[in-house]
Amino acid sequence: MKEHDIDDHGLTPVDPAEAQHHDATLCPECEGTGTLPAGETCPVCEGTGKATGRTGGG
């Protein structure tokens, strides 16, 4: 392996359809649950689980 090569051995392929959101009305961060996996209220939708006009970050 050369210095600039990427070691992708062991990575599983991802289905592109699976990477997309299934329902555009659901919050992209919590996917409609209103909470994050840690149990916190989702900061994007503020717990509603609905999609908002807010995008991006940084």
TrEMBL record:
Which residue intervals are annotated with compositional bias (Low complexity) in the record? 47-58
Compositional bias (Basic and acidic residues): 1-10
Record-linked InterPro entries: HSP_DnaJ_Cys-rich_dom_sf
Looking at the record, which segments are called Disordered? Answer: 1-20, 36-58
Q: What is this protein called?
A: Chaperone protein DnaJ
Which organism is this entry from? Brevundimonas goettingensis
